[in-house]
Specification:
- One of its GO terms (molecular function) is prephenate dehydrogenase (NADP+) activity.
- It catalyses: prephenate + NAD(+) = 3-(4-hydroxyphenyl)pyruvate + CO2 + NADH.
- InterPro entries: 6-PGluconate_DH-like_C_sf, NAD(P)-bd_dom_sf, PDH_C, PDH_N, Preph/Arog_dehydrog, Prephen_DH.
- This is prephenate dehydrogenase.
- Keywords: Amino-acid biosynthesis, Aromatic amino acid biosynthesis, NAD, Oxidoreductase, Tyrosine biosynthesis.
- With 292 residues, this protein is α/β, with parallel strands linked by helices.
- The protein has two domains: 173 residues, NAD(P)-binding Rossmann-like Domain (Rossmann fold, 3-Layer(aba) Sandwich); 105 residues, Orthogonal Bundle (6-phosphogluconate dehydrogenase C-terminal fold).
- 53% of the residues lie in helices and 13% in strands.
- The strands form two sheets. A six-stranded parallel β-sheet has the order 3-2-1-4-5-6, with helices on both faces.
- Helix 5 links the parallel strand 5 and strand 6.
- The longest helix has 27 residues.
- The model has no long low-confidence stretch (mean pLDDT 93).
Length: 292
């Protein structure tokens, strides 16, 4: 098993997730040098100024020198970045990602990496914020959060163990999930669809002058429910499209719930509405108990 310490870390896309991962490894002395690359010059310069990375590097240099390379770009950009990495990629390097969907990312990696697919260890940290970019990165982002690793049959056990140990060093709870489709189905329900609901509600409120006025009167409940709608449109567009099948299934099922509640309301069935609300409230209280 490899020790949970590396000489060089490469981050491609030094934003909230990639930047926070780098900050943790530096803070805990688990890396000697962090190389950063990105498409936005001002962002990568800011990451250097903030001390998140030690040096701005080309993708070729990262491919040649990094022991671990984390591609922290939007999902839709992953394949292109991997294509740029492959010509110079060290045979000893581990490549990982932080994408919110896994089946399409793994398929892209197989197409690009071919018989070197064993160097790719897919990962998904369940942590985020409405803020983005290197200024959003912070040390505590992954504390007590889950990170899902979906190892491939071609992965070396020691490479999976190293990535597990690095995420654990960030304060995360690491879970291994064998099937990428299971991952995507699960997170369509607990991550992607909730974001859709928040964004859908904000779009609905913005579409009418009276409702726009009402937005000025919202309180803490409104704030808490809609917080995630402020996330990166680019990132969430890519997530929705890459997990389209599972999202459409969630929408079909949720439509049944809307029809069910509308029917109860039309009948003014107070007892059924109470039972429905009580069941939902208990489910939420139980979830919180499990998480604490």
């Amino acid at each position: 098993m490899k020790t949970a310490r590396i000489k060089t870390l490469g981050i491609i896309g030094v934003g909230l997730i990639g930047g926070s991962f780098a900050l943790n490894l530096k803070h805990y002395g688990l890396v000697d040098c962090v190389l950063g690359a990105g498409r936005d010059t001002s962002s990568i310069v800011k990451a250097l100024e903030l001390g998140i990375i030690d040096r701005i590097a080309s993708i070729d240099e990262i491919a040649q020198k990094a022991d671990v390379i984390v591609v922290a770009t939007p999902v839709n950009a992953f394949a292109k970045v991997l294509q740029q990495l492959m010509p110079k990629l060290s045979k000893q390097a581990i490549v990982s990602d932080v994408g919110s969907t896994k089946a399409n990312v793994i398929q892209a990696a197989r197409e690009v990496m071919g018989n070197r697919i064993g160097q790719f260890v897919p990962a998904h940290p369940i942590a985020g914020s409405h803020a983005s970019g290197p200024t959003a990165a912070f040390l505590e982002l992954f504390q007590e959060k889950n990170v899902i690793i979906t190892p491939l049959v071609e992965n070396k056990p020691e490479d999976v163990a190293l990535m597990t140990a690095l995420w654990q060093a960030c304060g995360a709870h690491v879970q291994l999930l064998a099937e990428a489709k299971d991952h995507d189905d699960i997170f369509a329900g607990v991550s992607h669809f909730p974001h859709f609901l928040a964004a859908c509600y904000m779009s609905f409120m913005e579409s009418d002058p009276v409702r726009r006025q009402a937005l000025k009167m919202g309180g803490t409940g409104f704030r808490d429910f809609t917080r995630i709608a402020a996330g990166s449109p680019e990132m969430w567009r890519d997530i929705f499209l890459s997990n389209r099948e599972a999202m459409l299934h969630q929408m079909d099922e949720f439509e049944k719930e809307l029809v069910h509640f509308k029917h109860m309301l039309e009948l003014a069935d107070g007892e059924q509405i109470y039972d429905w609300l009580a069941k939902a409230a208990e489910a939420r209280r139980t979830w919180k108990t499990v998480q604490s």
